[in-house]
Amino acid sequence: MFESQSLWVVSIVGLFALGVLVASADLAVNRLIKLAAYFHLSTTFMGVTVVSLATSIPEITAHIVASLGIVSNRMDYRIGSSIVLGANIGSDVIQQTLIMGLVVFIAGALRFRRYFLWKSMIPMIGTTVMCIVLGLDRTYSRLDGAILFGVFLGYMVYLYRDERKFYRPEDNGFGQNGEAPDGVPTTGRQATVFGLTAAGALAVAVGSAAVVLNLTELVVQRTAIGGSLIGVLTLGVASALPEFITAISGVRHREHGISLGTLVGSNITNPLVAIGGGALISTYWVPRPLLVWDLPWETVTGIILWVILWVTRGKLGKLGAFYLIGLYFAYVVLRAVFFAVD
After folding, report:
1. Residue 236 above 80 pLDDT?
2. Do the Cβ atoms of 305 and 198 come closer than 8 Å?
3. Kind and range of the H or E element at 99?
4. pTM, rounded to two decimals
5. Is the pLDDT of residue 272 over 90?
């Protein structure tokens, strides 16, 4: 659509789409925070479940489209598998290192509760290990897909039961006598309107992110900024825009639970739902670099982050942010040098 347009037009449209993305994500976060209070759910729970699923729609959609192309013989089995698996795991690494680091740097510091480290971050690391083990035979079969998708459903049930057990109304600003904080829906009709508004805003955010991604690709192709490595960096950041903008919106509203839940939850959703669902449709061929570099790197960085947070009692400051950002650039450089070919 924009291939014939000038670079200036592409850049202006891209900036406009980015503005729409920021505004829609901010609106969605605002409404979801209020809905969480109405349903007596923590913002962290909303981030790990609803928001992480919504912001993972691009990855999930890409897997479905690729899998349908594979089963209909419209897409090469190995090429299609490599593209979606590489994009999925690459996106996870970006969110776990670069995006997390940027969010912490902008916020100044983030605090993780100890229960969050066990309830969300350990499962995040565990899903990556599952992907390694299930992919050792170089394929994700339909059985593997069923295992991944089934684990996701079981994890959602566990989170909901745990939420109902430990939720405290005061965490969402309720008074001692049950008075609702300002702006929280008080009727089912108001809650429905808030829910529809949030869903619409998230849909706009995802659509805007897709536009920004496509336009960014055009800019990289036309300018050849720094070659393929810069292209990977630019497109990688663009593909993680929904999670990044949503996390930043959470910080702006001082709801760090949304930010943390979105970033960590998305790294659980992507492997279990996107890879699991796609494998159920078509099965996947697993490239060697994915098994020997991408997934192990994601596992190791996740463990390092967990250890840092445990030692610092859940506080991640700017020094930790720089460390995470550095890990991402090390990942990209080493991947390009040693694992350029599948």
Report:
1. no
2. no
3. none
4. 0.74
5. yes
Tokens of 305: 């982050």
Burial 143-175 (b: 16+ CB within 10 A, else e): ebbebbbebbeebbeebeeebeeeeeeebbebe
Residue 42 phi, psi dihedral angles, 5° rounding: -75, 155
Q: What is the spatial distance between Cα 49 and Cα 177, in angstroms, rounded to a whole number?
A: 29
Mean pLDDT taken over the chain: 79
Is pLDDT at 20 greater than 90 in this prediction? no
CB 145 within 8 A of CB 278: yes
H helix intervals, the chain: 7-38, 43-46, 52-55, 57-71, 77-94, 100-107, 114-116, 122-134, 142-166, 188-223, 227-239, 241-252, 256-269, 276-282, 288-289, 295-311, 318-338
Domain ranges across the chain: 43-166+227-336
- How long, in residues, is the chain? 342
- Give dist(CA 111, CA 302) in Å, integer: 16
88-92, 131-135, 231-235, 283-287: which range is least confident on average?
Answer: 231-235
- The confidence score (pLDDT) of residue 196 equals 92
Q: Lowest-confidence range among 8-17, 68-77, 215-224, 248-257? A: 215-224
The three state secondary structure string of 282-326 is HCEECCHHHHHHHHHHHHHHHHHHHHHHHHCCCEEEHHHHHHHHH
Contact 18, 212 (CB under 8 A): yes
CATH of domain 43-166+227-336: 1.20.1420.30
| Residue 287, Ramachandran bin (φ over 0: left; ψ between -120 and 50: alpha; else beta) | beta
C-alpha Rg value of the chain to the nearest Å: 20
What is the average per-residue pLDDT within 277-302? 90
- Dist. CA 195–CA 201, nearest whole Å: 10
